[in-house]
C-alpha cells in the first residue's frame, strides 16, 4: 500500500520560510516524478513544483525564484523549501506521486501566511 505523508506546514509571517516534507512508503519511489500541489479555499488545486526521477524540476510561475523542490531517493522523501512567503501562498499543500497507476496523494498540510 502506497502512502504519502506531508509535514512541515504551519503559520508563518509574510516574508518567512517553511520547509515541507513528504515521506513515501510502499512505493518504488525513485522511478516516479513527484509533485507538490496546493489548494486554497474556493480555488482549484494547482501544481506548485515537480521533480522527475532524474532530478529535472519545473515550477509554477507564481512561485519561481521563491520555492525549491528536492528529493532524497534513499529515504523516499521529497521536500519543498519555500522562502519569501506571501499571504497568497496560503493553502493546503499536497504531495503527489505521478506516473503510477493510480497516482497517489497525501492528506495535505496547511500553510498559512499571515501577520
Describe the overall structure.
This protein is mostly beta strands and 115 residues long. Helix content is 0%, strand content 51%. It has strands spanning 3-7, 10-12, 18-25, 33-39, 46-51, 57-59, 67-72, 77-82, 91-98, 104-105, 109-113. A hairpin with a 5-residue loop joins β9 (91-98) and β10 (104-105). It has no helices and eleven strands. The strands form two sheets. Strands 2, 4, 5, 6, 9, 10 and 11 form a seven-stranded mixed β-sheet that branches. The mean pLDDT is 96.
Helix content: under 10%
Main sheet overview? 7 strands, mixed
Distance between the termini: 40 Å
Radius of gyration: 13 Å
Number of E-type strands = 11
Label the overall shape.
globular
Q: Could you state the order of secondary-structure elements as H and E?
A: EEEEEEEEEEE
Low-confidence stretches: none
Overall pLDDT, averaged? 96
**Beta fraction of the residues?**
over 45%
Estimated structural class: mainly beta
H/I helix tally:
0
Amino acid at each position: 500500500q502506497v502512502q504519502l505523508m506531508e509535514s512541515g506546514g504551519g503559520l508563518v509571517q509574510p516574508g518567512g520560510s517553511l520547509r515541507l516534507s513528504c515521506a513515501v512508503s510502499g512505493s518504488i519511489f525513485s522511478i516516479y516524478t513527484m509533485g507538490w500541489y496546493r489548494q486554497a479555499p474556493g480555488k482549484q488545486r494547482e501544481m506548485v513544483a515537480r521533480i522527475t526521477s532524474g532530478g529535472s524540476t519545473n515550477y509554477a510561475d507564481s512561485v519561481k525564484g521563491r520555492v525549491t523542490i528536492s528529493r532524497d531517493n534513499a529515504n523516499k522523501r521529497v521536500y519543498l523549501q519555500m522562502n519569501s512567503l506571501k499571504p497568497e501562498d496560503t493553502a493546503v499543500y499536497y504531495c503527489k506521486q505521478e506516473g503510477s497507476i493510480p497516482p497517489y496523494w497525501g492528506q495535505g498540510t496547511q500553510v498559512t501566511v499571515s501577520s
